[in-house]
Amino acid sequence: MLPIVLVSLLVSSVLAGPVVNVAQYNVNEIAPARDNGRAVSSYITDRSFELVDGGDTNIYILTIQQILNDLANAPDANSQAIAVGQTIALLGELAYGIPGDACEAAALVNAVATRSGVRGALNNYLARLAANIDLIAQVGVNPNAYRYSTGPKANCAGGGRTYQFEAAWDIAISNSNAYNVGYINEEYCAAKRLYGALNSRSNNVGAAVTAAVSGPVAKAVEYALVPLSDFLKTVVSGANAGSAAAAAKNALIQAGGRVQL
What we know:
Blueprint: H1 2-16, H2 42-48, H3 59-73, H4 77-94, H5 103-114, H6 118-141, H7 165-174, H8 181-195, H9 200-212, H10 215-223, H11 225-237, H12 242-258
Helix pairs in contact: 2-3, 2-11, 3-4, 3-8, 4-6, 4-9, 4-10, 5-6, 5-7, 5-9, 6-12, 7-8, 8-9, 10-12, 11-12
C-alpha cells in the first residue's frame, strides 16, 4: 500500500497547488533589551509593530521594520530620529483596515526634492505624524480600533502615490552619515518596490518611509526625540499613553518651527 499512499499524496499536492509561507528572522535572534540606558533602542521599534495586525504586511515592509531596529540601535541621534519618525509614520499606515492616501507625505517629498514650499509641507506632514500619535495610543488600548476604518484622505493627484521618489532618496543618501548610510541604502531598495507596487497600502508605506527619512522631518523628530521615544515606550508597556501622547505631539509640532530650512 505504500506506493498508493505516495501517489495519493502527489495527486493531492498537485490539486491543492503550491503553498508558500514567508517568515523573516533577524540574524541576531537575541531579543532586544528592554532598557539599554538610551532614549531609543530596537526594543521600542520592534515592539511597536506588534500593536498592528501583520496579516497583509509584505516582505518589503518587514524588511524596513528590521532596518528600523538597526537604526534605533545606532549610536547617533540622526539614525535614532529616523527610526522613531519612520516607526510612527509606518504605524499610521498599517493601523487602518482600509488604506487612505499619502497626500501629505508626497507633498513633503516633492517640496524637499524641489526645495520649494518646504515649510508649509513640513508643518502639514508633522501634523499628520501628530495624528498618528493619537492613533497609536488608541491602538495600544484597542488593537481593533481602526480595523474597519479608512485612513485619512485628501484631494491630491493620484492619492499621493506619484512623487519625486528618486530625487528624494538621492538627497537622503547624500545626507546620510557613516553610521546609517548602509541602512538608508537598504531602505531605498525596499521603498522603491513599495513605491512601484500595485496596492495602495504598499504605496502609502513607501511614501511614509520616503517622507520620514527626509532631512527636515528627521531633524524635527531629533529635536523631540525624548518625548517621542517616551511615548512609544509607554505604549508598548501597555500603560495608558494619553499624557505621553499629548507631550509627544506638542514637542513634535514645536520642533518643526526650530528646523532650519
